[in-house]
Amino acid sequence: MDVPLNVKVICSDGPCGRTTNLILMPTNDEITHVVVGDGHYPETGYLVPMERITESTPESLRLNCSRAELSNLPIFNHAEFIPSGLSGSMVWPYATTAAGFVMIDHEHIPANELAVRRGADVEATDGHAGSVDEFLINPVDNTISHLVLREGHFWKQKDVTIPVSQIDRIETNTVWLKLDKHSVETLPTIPIHHGRS
Fold first, then answer.
1. Among the CATH numbers 3.40.50.300, 3.30.70.270, 2.30.30.240, 1.25.40.20, which is that of 118-190?
2. What pLDDT is recorded for position 50?
3. Which of 31, 47, 77, 182 has the fewest CB atoms in 10 Å of its CB?
4. CB of 83 within 8 A of CB of 98?
5. Which of 54, 107, 109 is nearest to 78 (CA)?
6. Cα 90 to Cα 167: distance, rounded to the nearest angstrom
7. Which tens digit of pLDDT belongs to each residue from 38-75?
8. Phi, psi angle pair for 156, to nearest 5°
9. Where is average pLDDT lowest: 18-32, 52-66, 97-111?
């Protein structure tokens, strides 16, 4: 199963948001949840168990629950607005949303698990190799079978499929490979899905 990130999600009663993160158990590379952001501002993301996915395409995921059932699932993140003491300026890494307030996004990751988002860095043994585009999942046990790496400059982008056996470790926002950059370039490539926004 292909579990794409940043694609639309459809509940049994209609569209309900987009995929924002995958939650995985780093000890066995099992994907336990996909995070579905509701698309509102500030966005709330819901932890959706893999068993809720009934169909996956490069452009969308379909769930076996209604939008109301989705909103009752555990929340992955929520926004908190706190006074900043500033007026309309930028505060790194948070942006002020209105004069005097800063929005902080809190993530609730299940114990002993990691969140990986599209665009996370992928590091080869000799330096930066690209970024995470998506993961291919074994539907039998929901473990990662391949990482799809996006590499190259905007005008020469390609997706490279890396077997999970060549992943050394996964940390928050970084996937470390057992391969050097030259070895990555010799792996099979797949077409990039240009329809995704």
1. 2.30.30.240
2. 92
3. 182
4. no
5. 107
6. 37
7. 887 667 889 999 999 999 988 899 999 999 999 999 98
8. -130, 40
9. 97-111
